């Protein structure tokens, strides 16, 4: 059980930085659909639990350090080659989004130049990638209980202190930018892009399990924890729509609205989540190109860290709205392949 929970927490840590720690992703994929976003959270929870279980078990079975073997196993060599290229590109795009998210957080919370924020996260990520894989997985998992506690406080406060009626909340929510035309597609795209970006590292995490059952339970635990976090963030945003309109980091804005100390704690949690996702995504991207034990591994990490730093100034909100949606449609192919594999195994 302890091993399964560790795997589940690492799964959550991998997703939350790119998935919802800032709140911008929740806004575009869930909250912008108003009260229907609750149904979206249910769909997302089921999707994450089912897919997390299967991906972790595939990782245990293949014992791989890269997503290449996984997509070939799921989709065959021809389609697998296409998916391999697309996933590799998007892994780097999500890494860049994390650098951009740090730049936005430094500007919004500290009033610092975004260059400082992006450079800070790039250096931290590059230095972490010099560690071994088990150390990286532990880093990814470590801050999740802290985030869960903070999100519970923020959600309860938001509900108890909202100044808006349900109708007013809905109107404001529906005026926000949406990443999909309806709540169901929004939830499916959200799960899909997180799976597409996380499948590489999730299989690596699964490969460290002591048994297939431990790997599968870890995936299920991760999906359920993600569902709880999605629900908490979504409720907080919906209750405080008048506070979060037009900001890059809405969850941090709500936290500061409660108390400056809560705001600082949330900002630290946000940076920890962005960091964990940046580490997971960049590691998955690099090891697809260069084996970790290769002598050019470290210079390659530094090189792509510099490229990611330069690319991060496209802007966080823009990256969330465009890159994530495209990645979501790519993820549908991976989800279909996983589901078909699961169904054939059952038969």
From TrEMBL:
Kindly list the residue ranges recorded as spanning the membrane: 33-60, 81-103, 115-133, 140-160, 180-202, 214-238, 258-289, 301-320, 326-344
Under InterPro entries, the record lists:
YkvI-like
The alphabetized UniProt keywords are: Membrane, Transmembrane, Transmembrane helix
Q: Which PANTHER family match?
A: CONSERVED MEMBRANE PROTEIN, MEMBRANE PROTEIN
Name of the protein described by the UniProt record: Uncharacterized membrane protein YkvI
Classification from the root reads: Bacteria, Bacillati, Bacillota, Bacilli, Bacillales
